[in-house]
Amino acid sequence: MTWKDVINYATNGNLKPDRTSIKTSSEWQDLLTAEQYQITRLKGTERAFSGEHCTSYETGKYSCTCCNTELFDSSIKYNSNSGWPSFTEPIKENAVKYIKDTTHGMIRVEILCNSCDAHLGHVFPDGPKPSGLRFCVNSISIQLKNEE
């Protein structure tokens, strides 16, 4: 996956997810903590360097806090010094949805869980090789499932 692919998806539409999880706002509020709801459903951002996954490098797979869809593998997580967990690519090309984001006077690409539309964070073209991508993710949007 490259920045060109990200822009293409954000501009022309995303790949179909393997499954979808659709709930009302009320149903999400019943399932999530107030902080999880604020970040994943209302597109909030946790404070830099505050999330539990920011400096943790345990082996496993990271899944969506809302719907448990696998999103990222720990083998492609790296320390970006940005204050948020960073990955070079999603676990599968159709796991993440890309949306053009023009809020806060910037042009960015928001990343969402492609199954349930949970806000994860943003992707930037300043990551390490080979992808050159930095998937910058709110810790509260993901949960680690350790490999046993």
> How many runs of DSSP E, i.e. beta strands?
9
Between the first and last Cα atoms, what is the distance in angstroms?
29 Å
Counted up, domains total 1
Coarse shape: globular
Strand order of the largest sheet: 3-4-8-7-6-5
H/E element sequence: HHHEEEEEEEEE
CATH topology: Metal Binding Protein, Guanine Nucleotide Exchange Factor, Chain A
Radius of gyration: 14 Å
Q: What CATH architecture do you see?
A: Beta Complex
DSSP strand (E) fraction?
A: 25-35%
> Number of helical runs?
3
Which CATH C-level class is it? Mainly Beta
Helix content: 10-25%
Low-confidence stretches: none
Structure write-up:
It contains three helices and nine strands. It has a single domain (3-47, 61-146), classed as Beta Complex (Metal Binding Protein, Guanine Nucleotide Exchange Factor, Chain A). The protein is 16% helix and 27% strand. By secondary structure, the protein is α+β, with helices and mostly antiparallel strands. Strand 1 and strand 2 form a beta hairpin. The strands form two sheets. A six-stranded antiparallel beta sheet has the order 3-4-8-7-6-5, covered by helices on one side. A three-stranded antiparallel beta sheet has the order 2-1-9, with no helix packed on it. It has helices at residues 3-12, 25-31, 34-40, and strands spanning 60-64, 70-73, 77-78, 86-87, 96-101, 108-113, 119-124, 134-137, 142-146.
